[in-house]
Amino acid sequence: MLAACTALTAPAMAEEPKFGGTLRIASLQPDLDAFDPLTGYSVDSWEILRAVTRQLVTYPGATTDIKDDTNLVPDLAKSWDVTPDGKTYTFHLKDDVFFSGPTDRKIVAADFVYGIKRFCDPNKQVAAINYFNLAISGFVDYCKEFAKVPTGDLAATKAFIDSHEISGVSAPDAATLVIKSDTKNYDFLNILSMNFVSPVPSEIASRYFPDSAEFRKNFPSSGPYYVESYQDGQKLVLKKAKNFKPESDQARKAYVDEIQVDFTANGEDSVVQKIEAGEADLSLYLEVPPRSAIRRFQNDRDSQIYASNSGSANFITFNARPEAQSEGANALRKPEVRQALTYAVNRAHLVQSQGGPVAAVPLSQIITSTILGHEPFDPYPTDGNKGDPEKAKALLAKAGYPNGLKLDAAYRTTAQFETIAVTVKEDAAAAGIELNLIAVPATQWYAFIQDPSSRWDISLGSQFSPDWQGPSTRMLLGGWLNSDASPCGTGNVHSICYSNPELNKLAAEAFPSDNPGPIWAKADKLVSTDLPWIPLFEKRKIALTSDRITHWAWSSLAVQADITNIAVKN
């Protein structure tokens, strides 16, 4: 298996990259989960947004491994200045960059200001608000006022944005953007590299509700491609923008002339068959290809399979909202019950269910292997990562559940998550924990998790991918688990609602530090022991492709294929 992993690292390319042709993508889901820089926060939505958005700074992609795409380069900003205290950044924009699609006007600094002011729209707020709560001066106060605006009223939303400012964001002129923070942040440029921080023309976006079908069809693109057509649940066609100037973009080569996303596949096997038949070049939303398909490609199409360590992980979260008052939810508030559950999990069994070491490795801590501060650590070790049912039973008894415990367990209805759900249910039963599985359609997953009235005690459908490789620890220990950044309530990722003052203090030390790694490592040991969630396994990203691919690239942000740097046979 080790030999197989090595062989999957980087197949040799048959041809030099050539421009032209169409990249065809088969989607497992019947539509994009999000297609707006405001709301897109899955690796799959980011893969597509990579083609139609640009940021101040970005990553150029990597042909070797996802973790190698860590070198920030200028994108729409040609340069920037930083004050000595590290709190104020002044960006100078390029003068040859334009929107495409519903408008082809020049991109100006005010478009970034408007894009950021959209973040708190009560109709649909930015998907990672925790970053900006701490990183931009005046952002929290602005959001509190914006929350008072009634939903469902586009005119009221526009009036608020037009009449209110964020003190830390300004555009002194068309080519200058100033962003201020109350503190120095070692990862400030990384935060700005995310798709959220994209320019948006107010005269277009203000006409539509965020990420609505109308917005998608009239997507104002700042990237090398624009939306030529979009049909709900059918097809998305992106075409090279006529006003895209390759010399202005050192990150996206934009080899292909057109990108087509087909939403009509009706299952994993259908997606793989389209790729094997040459009807598609890549997949979308195929988290882990079927094991049989991986073996076929390894044996017969080894130049058409790519794999990379990704730093991504799957885990079990708890419904910690105050509204969750079921017996199971209250039981999980006891540390002994969370410890019992982690001992009940057979991580070796889960890894095997995902396809073995080629696809995943056991995980017992919050920080994954490609993230700053990672030091291998297992606070609750078991022989061969197989779990310890007897220890789990003893902990349950200590917590007051000598006869075991029943939990409502929600999961997404995809093959990967169904496998995880069935595997965990089987192993938990041996430890006296009975799981009542609740299936939730993948397209409804995030809405279900965020709804306070939804019935569930644990989620078997939780996962993350680093928002960037390397120094992205803020996402987890400084974001999702930091109650100063992610207070319990609307927008709290996976309804984790975790609060640990000691963690928050360590995070506050890490943000301005010139050497945050050791601080994050200490925080990881603290929190991984406390179990705000149950780590399961770290994933490797596996991509199956057609034989039309002549040049491959990974994206750090998308944590999978970089569709702007892939070339195909014409």
UniProtKB/TrEMBL annotation:
GO biological process: peptide transport
Gene Ontology MF annotations: peptide transmembrane transporter activity
Pfam family, one: SBP_bac_5
Location of the Solute-binding protein family domain: 72-486
Keywords: Signal, Transport
Compartments it resides in: Periplasm
One term under GO cellular component: ATP-binding cassette (ABC) transporter complex
Keyword Signal: yes
Protein family (similarity comment): Belongs to the bacterial solute-binding protein 5 family.
Protein name from the UniProt record: ABC transporter substrate-binding protein
